[in-house]
Prior knowledge:
Layout: H1 3-15, H2 19-36, H3 42-59
Helix pairs in contact: 2-3
Amino acid sequence: MGLLDDLKGKAQQVIGGNEQAIKDGIEKAGDFVDSKTGGKHADKIDAVQRGASDFVDKANDRPNTAPVVDQTPVAGESPVAGEPRQPDL
């Protein structure tokens, strides 16, 4: 499981119940950047706004759970993070 998958799962948890507020924020942020660049990159900004809004919409279609991480200990490592490994007897 990669970092992006982990971030995506966390974003989905945050989105739950706040969809419209997030989409409004995406729109306002894009409009702000567009005004600061004088409309020079309006097509790219609009594409990013659509992509971000689509992500928010799609997050509603998925269960609101974080991805499961494989926590199987590797040979020679302690099965519990932070605990010293017990010597093999």
